[in-house]
Design goal:
Elements: E1 2-6, H1 19-32, E2 36-39, E3 42-43, H2 54-67, E4 73-75, E5 79-81, H3 90-95, E6 104-108, H4 116-127, E7 131-135, H5 145-154, E8 158-162, H6 163-167, H7 174-180, E9 186-188, H8 203-209
Parallel strand pairs: 1-2, 2-4, 3-5, 5-6, 6-7, 7-8, 8-9
């Protein structure tokens, strides 16, 4: 399995608190059967993330994982805020593309329900040669939520749901119903720390989707 959304880099944004926390997150991933984790620090006004340093930070963490024989590969990426997308250069966009491959960007919708601005941002990124993965849509639901998802998918977006939300029975039948419609493309842990919050796990969400 591949986790495309994880704040595993130490002491960078609101994610991992330090190296030991990052190592513990990688061990969570290993136990869950996750082989690859994309490091996706926030590219947002309230976090001082230097995009040009992400790749080296990933390499440094990978060296620590290899030294401890933790069988997880970390790849570079970023969680690009909708509100920052226009201010990021083309070169920087490619540095925060998932896996460092330059093709897909993880896009965090602006706070509140998804609106027309998100679709415009997706179009802008497309014109700059990048396709979009929409992060955690369940946090941006409004009255026209399902129609927004259909339109985003129609623009060629992939929709990334948070694995813990998908696995939670209290979320009802929303995600299974949308999955049956082809609107659940990717699961991500969106884990921030091993100490609290969501763990680096995907398997429970995958298991629930397998019943659809």
């Amino acid at each position: 399995m591949i986790d495309l959304h994880c704040h595993i880099l130490p002491e960078l944004d609101d994610g991992s608190l330090g190296l030991e926390d990052s190592l513990a997150m990688a061990r969570q991933a290993e136990r869950d059967g996750i082989e690859i984790v994309c490091a996706t620090p926030h590219i947002r006004h309230d976090h001082n993330v230097r995009i040009e340093e992400i790749a080296e930070r990933v390499r440094a963490l990978q060296r620590h994982l290899d030294d401890r024989e933790i069988a997880v590969k970390v790849l570079p990426g970023g969680e690009l805020a909708q509100t920052e997308a226009e201010r990021v250069s083309d070169a920087q966009l490619r540095l925060v593309a998932l896996g460092g491959a330059g093709g897909w960007v993880l896009l965090e919708p602006a706070p509140g329900p998804m609106g027309d601005g998100l679709e415009a941002c997706v179009e802008m990124l497309s014109e700059r040669g990048l396709r979009t993965v929409i992060a955690h849509p369940e946090r941006h639901a409004g009255g026209d939520f399902e129609e927004r998802l259909r339109r985003l998918a129609g623009q060629g977006c992939l929709i990334q749901w948070t694995a813990a939300f998908v696995a939670d029975p209290s979320s009802g039948d929303l995600v299974p119903r949308l999955a049956a419609e082809g609107l659940v493309h990717v699961l991500g842990s969106d884990a921030h720390s091993s100490y609290a919050g969501r763990p680096v796990e995907l398997s429970a969400g995958v298991a629930r989707l397998a019943t659809v």
